[in-house]
Design a protein that fits this description.
Pfam family, one (chain A): ETF
CATH superfamily of the largest domain in chain B: HUPs
Strand order of the largest sheet of chain B: 7-10-6-1-4-5-11
Order of helices and strands of chain A: EEEEEHEHEHEHEEEEHEEEH
CATH topology of chain A: Rossmann fold
Oligomer: heterodimer
Largest sheet of chain B: 7 strands, parallel
Radius of gyration of chain B: 21 Å
Strand content of chain A: 25-35%
CATH architecture of chain A: 3-Layer(aba) Sandwich
Family (chain A): Belongs to the ETF beta-subunit/FixA family.
InterPro entries (chain A): ETF_a/b_N, ETF_b, ETF_beta_N, Rossmann-like_a/b/a_fold
Order of helices and strands of chain B: EEEHEEHEHEEEEEEEHEHEHEEH
Number of domains of chain A: 1
Distance between the termini of chain B: 54 Å
CATH superfamily of chain A: HUPs
Protein name (chain A): Electron transfer flavoprotein subunit beta
Largest sheet of chain A: 9 strands, mixed
Bound molecules: flavin-adenine dinucleotide
Number of helices of chain A: 6
Number of domains of chain B: 2
Structural class of chain B: alpha/beta
Strand content of chain B: 25-35%
Keywords (chain A): Electron transport, Transport
Helix content of chain B: 25-40%
Strand order of the largest sheet of chain A: 11-10-9-12-8-1-6-7-13
CATH architecture of the largest domain in chain B: 3-Layer(aba) Sandwich
Chain lengths: ~250, ~325
């Protein structure tokens, strides 16, 4: 069985959010980059766990991005996975990225395609659903658990107010989130091994973006906190009731 | 040309998030000078003509055994046919669990640019530009959709439900419904509880509660406020609370009217998922806790002392004590 794990690159969670070029570009200067947490902690680690249980599984990592992404690809390989593919292109919009991933899946014959539920920068959560549609694969979004038995995957997914378990025959695309696995830290052996794992670079296929960011902006700042003393909880509730009108 | 709104339901009831989507779609249709139509797949107990009160003129109700459970692939194929037959130009979804699976697929199938996580009506004065949250609410982006058709997934709790007097015509359509490739084998749904993502009030607690055995005072406040429960990441990681309650940049992102944070420091990753809350109340014994900078109201004090008092005061105001 072949698993493809899609890896995105995002600014570190503590990165300063600012914009340049008339608010049309994210200010990248000085920003630390990480693997998108949902891709790393859940999609990749769950794939690794499946391979630990069944060594016949092959895991490939896929990233759409420039050469400056190679450090985070190596970091992902240090956690696990047999080889990585980088589609050498600027990820312009979700549709463009999905089109690249779908092409790799088509030519690579993967049974299971894993993505994170969303990236923590654009928060689109669109890649999984788009890839599935481009390939006419079934798609399970917001998955909190995943098992594979022969040619059937059992996926637990979030629904409003609960969870649901579905069975689906492979191939399938699964969008992963918390619950699926526990985050890991790469060990020394993994880091050494990652240096020599294959990292193939392919050129993108043509795909027209469907959207573009016209402008970024920051939300208005809060007015400041109104502090109340610990023996005046009733006053707090009165303010919430009469001033803020939320109770 | 029309605006088509996907109407989602659970246990036979239309989701609140879908009423927001309908209200949004109806106002968008008015803005574009066209009609707003809804589509509902599967079985519901509600009278669909009553959805006219939120501004839809027509609701297409499609029933079929293959639509009895949610399968993204089947729903996508059916919705694409509905969009084509009705000449829909803009598709509106709630950005909830179903919308997150469907909107991207419809975007591809209809070659319609997608804005997911929209927070307001589009600016159509020059093109079609929709505001959405990015960086987990730390910033926003105005996204231009460059295609003829568009798909919008509206963030939950980002748009006020409008209720008027209209009645919608309920109609059916002839579509091809393929067999699903997924099969539901079990469902585990806590009934009666307020759903976190849709909740108007959320009570959240962090490591300051010291241990899972102390959650009683948190639950009592939540009950008094008719609120959903949430927690910080370390609380879920330590299995004090279920993962589904973890809010923040790497958990659930929420935007309630009122967010009460007890014993949570307010780390940047936590704030990122809750900063769209309209009113934030922070209870923390450390006056230097970063959360106070993001709060509207705050009390510096011990959660074990404050939370029970808070509950009592709420009961008084609500007239239940
Ligand atoms: C990549 C990444 C992603 C992350 N994503 C998330 C996320 O999505 N969500 C999230 O929540 N965190 C996230 N975190 C973790 C985050 O950085 C913080 O560690 C976490 O939010 C802290 O949780 P806490 O506030 O409950 O605990 P602490 O930081 O330990 O704070 C406990 C607070 O309780 C107060 N306190 C203690 N006792 C009392 C008392 N008796 N009465 C009143 N107050 C008391 C203390 O003063 C303190 O402020 C992430 C971290 C990383 C690195």
């Amino acid at each position: 069985m072949k698993i493809l794990v899609c890896i995105s690159k995002t600014p570190d969670t503590t990165a300063k959010i600012a914009f340049t070029d008339n608010n049309t570009k994210f200010a990248e200067a000085g920003v630390q980059w990480i693997i998108n947490p949902y891709d790393e902690w859940y999609a990749l680690v769950r794939a690794i766990e499946l391979k630990e249980a069944n060594p016949a599984i092959t895991i490939h990592l896929l990233h759409v991005g420039g050469t400056d992404s190679e450090p985070i690809i190596r970091k992902a390989l240090a956690l696990g996975g047999d080889e990585a593919i980088r589609v050498n292109a600027d990820p312009t919009d979700s549709y463009f990225v999905a089109a690249q991933i779908a092409e790799v899946v088509r030519s690579g014959g993967y049974d299971l395609v894993l993505t994170g539920k969303e990236t923590i920068d654009y928060n689109n959560g669109a890649i999984g659903g788009m890839v599935a549609e481009l390939l006419d694969f079934p798609y399970v979004a917001l998955a909190t658990g995943l098992n594979v038995e022969g040619s059937t995957a059992t996926v637990k997914r979030e629904i409003e107010g609960g969870e649901e378990t579905v069975e689906v025959s492979l191939p399938v695309v699964v969008g992963c989130q918390k619950g699926m696995a526990e985050a890991r830290i790469p060990n020394m052996r993994g880091i050494m091994a990652a240096r020599t794992k294959p990292l193939k670079v392919t050129e993108p296929v043509a795909a027209e973006p469907l959207t573009l960011v016209a402008e970024f902006g920051m939300p208005p700042a809060k007015a400041g906190v109104k502090l109340l003393s610990a023996d005046n909880v009733e006053e707090l509730v009165r303010l919430l009731h009469e001033e803020a009108r939320v109770i | 040309m029309s605006v088509l709104i996907f109407i989602d339901h659970t246990s036979g009831m239309i989701k609140k998030a879908s009423r927001e989507a309908i209200s949004y779609g109806a106002q968008l249709a008015a803005q574009l000078g066209t009609t707003a139509e809804g589509v509902l797949l599967g079985n519901v107990a509600e009278d669909l003509s009553a959805l006219g009160q939120h501004g839809v003129q027509k609701v297409y109700h499609l029933q079929h055994t293959n639509l009895d459970h949610f399968d993204a692939q089947v729903y996508t194929k059916v919705l694409a046919q509905v969009a084509d037959q009705t000449g829909a130009q803009v598709l509106v979804f709630s950005n909830n669990t179903s919308g997150k699976a469907l909107a991207p697929a419809l975007s591809v199938r209809l070659k319609a640019g997608l804005v997911s996580g929209a927070v307001s009506l589009p600016d159509t004065s020059n093109g079609f530009v929709v505001k959405k949250n990015v960086f987990s609410g730390k910033a926003f982006a105005n996204v231009a959709v460059t295609t003829e058709r568009k798909v919008i997934a509206l963030n939950v709790n980002a748009f006020t439900i409008t209720t008027g007097t209209g009645t919608a015509e309920v109609a059916s359509l002839n579509v091809d419904v393929p067999a699903p490739k997924t099969r539901v084998i079990s469902k585990d749904k806590s009934s009666g509880k307020v759903t976190l993502s849709e909740a108007e009030v959320v009570v959240s607690a962090g490591r300051g509660l010291k241990g899972p055995e102390n959650w009683g005072i948190v639950e009592e406040l939540a009950t008094a406020l008719d609120a959903a429960l949430a927690c910080s990441r370390p609380v879920a990681d330590a299995h004090w609370r279920p993962h589904s309650e973890h809010v923040g940049q790497t958990g659930v992102a929420i935007a309630p009217n009122l967010y009460v944070a007890a014993g949570i420091s307010g780390a940047i990753q936590h704030l990122a998922g809750v900063n769209r809350s309209k009113v934030i109340v922070v209870i923390n014994k450390d006056p230097e806790a970063p959360f106070f900078k993001a709060a509207d109201y705050g009390i510096v004090g011990d959660v074990f002392e404050i939370l029970p008092k808070f509950t009592e005061a709420v009961k008084k105001v609500k007239g239940v004590a």
